[in-house]
Amino acid sequence: MNAGVERLRKSSGAIAGSAVVAGSRWLLMSPAVRGRRFPRWLLWSAASLGAAITANELAGKPVLPLRWSFLRMAVRTKHLLTEWQVGDGREAALADHVLSHARPGDVDDAIRVIDEFCRQRTWLINVGEEKGQILDRAIERVRPRRLLELGTYCGYSALRTARRMPPDARLVSVEFNPAKRGHRSGDPRPRQGRRSCQRRRGHLGRRREHPAHAARSARFEEGSLDLVFVDHDKNAYVPDLQRILDRGWLHPGSVVVADNIIAPGAPEYRRYMRQHEGTLWRTTEHRAHVEYQSLLPDMVLESDYLGG
Ligand SMILES: C[S@@+](CC[C@H](N)C(=O)[O-])C[C@H]1O[C@@H](n2cnc3c(N)ncnc32)[C@H](O)[C@@H]1O
User: Fold this and answer.
1) Ligand 1 near 231 CB (within 6 A)
2) Are residues 272 and 175 in the same domain?
3) Looking at residue 212, what is its pLDDT?
4) Minimal CA–CA distance to 130: which of 263, 277, 282?
5) Domain CATH code at residue 223
6) What's the gap in Å between 143 CA and the centre of ligand 1?
């Protein structure tokens, strides 16, 4: 893509913030509307917000709630929570960006390009670099041969997992939104070794059981699953973990890593792990931050299954 368009895209947040400032200022100065349709306090608030957005964008987007792409996502929360895509095409834009910027077949480079895109251009709900390293370390500790991921999204965590898992390991990643299943940026099939990654459409729940024999169709044998990464619907963490236990896929020593315990939050899951601490599970709580920024806190739980 032409460098001018690329620069314009990177600056779109600053441009939008400046436009809000200019618009509010114009309304404040205009005698026709002053104090009538728009109260002055509202115009001053809009101008301040616009100035804060512009400053944050120009300073490298350190404050997540002031990032233009985060605000755009916030107004589309309903769409995100029903479709699990923001609805402004950012997931497809990421795929295009990876295809045009990452070295083909180079997993490390694809991860680098995704992280750069999310930090510098548009924020996405990947596990991100900081929490991704917690997942990396769990994989290095367990050396899992059979892995299950719930929540593929654009395939970022699947790429990280594929990079760290042993050469003969197999990862199955489950995603209920078909739009992401074949996502080009997230093709986690590494070329080297005998590692295998499969994306499955579906979920583990009962209501939409039909497409969701996904994980079951992956034919995990009893006690065969070494590591599970839970990163899908936060309300489904406990019921889906229970389903995995009921199917007998885990063995003592299996590890479950769960993202987003604080933001947006999975309090029921944290409570469940605390209730069963020392009997069914032994959990480490890793304090971290929401992806691609360092102000808002988040937490990842790493739980060793004790059996029973
Ligand atoms: C936070 S994103 C996953 C991010 C991904 N693990 C990463 O770090 O790159 C959550 C994903 O879970 C999917 N999802 C939500 N509920 C689900 C369910 N019940 N079963 C399967 N996938 C689900 C959404 O469509 C969304 O793509």
Assistant:
1) yes
2) yes
3) 44
4) 263
5) 3.40.50.150
6) 24
Amino acid at the residue 65: P
Contacts of 180 (CB under 8 A, 6+ apart): 84, 85, 91, 152, 153, 154, 155, 186
Question: How many A from CA of 86 to the centre of ligand 1?
Answer: 13
Residue 66 maps to a domain: no
Tell me, yes or no, whether 112 lies in a domain.
no
Kindly state whether residue 31 falls inside one of the protein's structural domains. Answer: yes
Please indicate, yes or no, whether residues 288 and 146 belong to a single structural domain of this protein. yes
Provide the number of structural domains found in the chain: 2
Query: Rounded to two decimals, what is the model's pTM?
Result: 0.86
Ligand 1, atom 20, lies closest to the CA of 203
Does any ligand 1 atom lie closer than 6 A to the CB of residue 237?
no
Cα 3 to ligand 1 centroid, rounded to whole Å: 33
Report the SS3 class of residue 262: helix
Which ligand 1 atom sits nearest the alpha carbon of residue 177? Answer: 25
Q: Indicate whether 143 and 48 sit together in one domain.
A: no
- Residues 67-96 have a mean pLDDT of 87
Q: Which of 111, 113, 152 to mutate to test the pocket of ligand 1 (most atoms within 8 A of CB)?
A: 152
Pocket probe for ligand 1: among 187, 231, 260, the residue whose CB has the most ligand atoms within 8 Å is 231
Where in the sequence is the domain holding 180, given as residue range(s)? 126-305
Q: Is the pLDDT of residue 211 over 90?
A: no
Summarised one tens digit per residue, pLDDT across range 217-269 is 667 899 999 999 999 999 999 999 999 999 999 999 999 999 999 999 999 99
Cα separations (Å) of 254 from 61, 71, 92, 244, 282?
38, 39, 35, 12, 11
Structure token pair of residue 160: 């990280």
Distance CA 127, CA 188 (A): 15
